[in-house]
Structure formats: structure tokens, C-alpha cells
Design a protein that fits this description.
The structure is a homodimer of 170-residue chains.
Chain A (H helix, E strand, L loop, with lengths): L3 H4 L4 H13 L4 H9 L10 H13 L3 E3 L12 E3 L1 H11 L2 H5 L5 H7 L6 H16 L12 H23 L1
Helix pairs in contact in A: 2-5, 3-4, 8-9
Chain B binds a DNA duplex (28 and 28 nucleotides) through α3 and α4.
Chain lengths: 170, 170
DNA sequence: ACCCACATGTAATGGGTTACATGATTTA
DNA sequence: TAAATCATGTAACCCATTACATGTGGGT
């Protein structure tokens, strides 16, 4: 019998944390936190209050496990993904249903309501947003395989979408 | 002197709720809840436990106000946006800084980690995601001005992005 | 020695989700 | 009139954010 906690599917945060640990090998909680902090999306805040408890939850569910402390002074625990963790992670990763969902885009949300401002205000807003989106992406700090290309791809498409929308509003 | 609560800028949920009320004229809390529930993005769950307290908060902050109950039996309160609400809403709506943020995309998140599965698994995942994304959008239930076109535009671009990524992985 | 970045947490708070409760209105 | 849906809420729970506390290690 599997316990209820084991059956519950992973949240996005849990899945991403597992994936990071799976990819980067043994990691300290701090390293996981930094990985989130350096993500190009503001969605992943990587706050201590989120990540440390998260790591503890994952350990309690035996999806990750810590190598014995090296005992060299400070308490550092390096976590690796377990077999069960790998299974759960893969299940999360190939969830096409969730992947297909639209997610959340603060730009799209605002464009939905763009008729509530005057054409002049709209024009100014679009120009300001474009400026921030186009000028050099702040160079995602993580240098993991797909991070930069994917970030750039998504950025370009959002710019294109905004321009298309602006064009149609003219 | 403005009170702290007034100075605090709106969350996405608060901003969107205000915008809905601004656009749709006097609305009951239930109608606002349904507007969120019918949104094409799973991000806006429109649960009762989120919306009713939200409406109360907005009223307490005097960003919306209820017309006197019509007294016809059941307690129905119809809320309209106030002048202060309109100001706060516009400030939220033209916030280009936040609009430019990448937001959250469950597809993008998974593609970041797509090297953790085998090429065959990846191919299957991409096909499954594409199928769900391309087959007729479940027709957004709300028929507000930009909802459908924007939803379609974003959908098409996400499909294009996924195809581009799949191509590059070959 | 001193400062700053590294590293690991916890407490208070806020707010969203799920599930439940309750009554009114509509429809079969 | 019984069932379904409309409509409004509330309570328990979960979890992320902010802010704080604490200690280590390396550089100057």
C-alpha cells in the first residue's frame, strides 16, 4: 500500500526542485535555493522560507536523501535524488496535460483589459513593455543546458505577440 | 497621508478583479468568481474561498462599493468600482515592469529539464502536449472583447515555440 | 580584527485551495 | 415537490513571502 502523501502528484515547485537535484547531482539546500533565485522567471522566487521546508518535505517523502555529513565543522547536507524521487520526477516531467496549460503571463493579463485605458495610454504602455522586453535579457545567471535558448525563444515570441496585438489595435 | 494599505500596490488577482468590475459594471461577487472560473488560464481558479474574501478586502479598501441591497428576498450586493479603485486599477494595468516579466509557463519549465528523459520519451511528451494544445481550444467561456483573440494568439505562439524546440533537439 | 558573502534556518503573516454548510431559485 | 443549480459564505489546511536570527569562512 502506498501512503497518501506518496500518491499525491508533485507541485511545480517540487517537480522543478527534484529535476534540479537530478541534473546537478548532490546539492545542498542552499544550492537548490540559488538555482531558483537565478531562474529567469520571477515566478521562482527562491526564498529561504520556501526552499528549506520544501527540501525537508521531499526528504520526508524519501524522494531525496542526504549523504552523511562530512563532519568538517559546519552542518552541510548534500542531497541526491532517490529511485522513488526519479520516478515521481519523471511522472511530473512528462505530464502533457499540465504542460499544455496556458500558465500565467502578466502581459497577456493586461492586454485582456487594454480597452480600459485610452489609446494614448495603451501606446505608452506597449512601448514601455517592449523596451523592457527587448533590451538585453538580464542574462540568466544559471548556465544549464537549455535555460538561455529557451528563455530567449520565449522572449522573442512574447515580443512578437505584443507587436501583433499592437498592430491589430491600430 | 495615505494609509499603508492604500499604498500597497495590487496583486494580479486584485488588479484583474478590479478590471473585471470596471468593465462589466455592477457585479455580484458570484459573477466575479465566475469570470475567473471561465478564464482560459488554469491560473485563475476562481474558487469561492479566494474570491469572496478578495471582494471584502477590496471593499474595505474602498476600491469597490456596493449599491444598497434591493431587498428582494436574498442578499445580493452589486459592486461597482470607485474613483480610488479606478486609479489603483489603472496603476496596476499600465505597470510595464511587471507586464514584461516572464510569468510562468508549465511547458517551458518542462522543456528546461527535457534532457532528463530519453529521446523517445521526449518525442512522446512533445507529441502529447502538441495534441492537447492544438486541438480546438476549449472555447473560452467568457465572451469579453479580447479574450478569445489573445488566447488564440498565445496558443499559436506556444505551439510554434514547442515545434521550434523539438526541431532543434533533433 | 572586521566585513561581506555564504549558509541554514524559523516566526509571523498573508492568502489560496479544498471541502463543507446553508438557503434560494429554477427546472423536470 | 424533488433534484439540480445558483449564490454566498466559512473553516481547516497548506504553503510561499518577508523579515529576522545565527553562525561560518574568506578576503583586506
Amino acid at each position: 500500500m502506498t501512503k497518501a502523501a506518496d500518491r499525491k502528484s508533485l507541485t511545480e515547485l517540487e517537480g522543478a526542485a527534484l529535476a534540479i537535484i537530478a541534473r546537478e547531482g548532490p546539492l545542498t539546500p542552499y544550492a537548490v535555493k540559488e538555482a531558483f533565485r537565478n531562474s529567469p522567471s520571477e515566478f521562482w522566487s527562491g526564498s529561504a522560507g520556501a526552499v528549506y521546508p520544501l527540501i525537508n518535505r521531499l526528504e520526508k517523502r524519501k524522494l531525496i536523501s542526504a549523504k552523511a555529513d562530512k563532519g568538517d565543522g559546519r552542518a552541510r547536507r548534500e542531497f541526491s535524488i532517490t529511485a522513488a524521487g526519479r520516478t515521481a520526477m519523471k511522472e511530473w516531467l512528462v505530464d502533457a496535460e499540465r504542460a499544455a496549460g496556458m500558465g500565467f503571463d502578466p502581459l497577456r493579463t493586461r492586454l485582456f483589459f487594454s480597452e480600459l485605458i485610452t489609446p494614448a495610454e495603451r501606446k505608452a504602455f506597449i512601448a514601455a513593455a517592449l523596451a523592457r522586453m527587448e533590451d538585453g535579457a538580464p542574462a540568466p545567471a544559471v548556465d544549464l543546458p537549455h535555460v538561455k535558448p529557451l528563455h530567449d525563444l520565449w522572449s522573442r515570441l512574447r515580443v512578437k505577440a505584443l507587436k501583433a496585438f499592437a498592430e491589430k489595435m491600430k
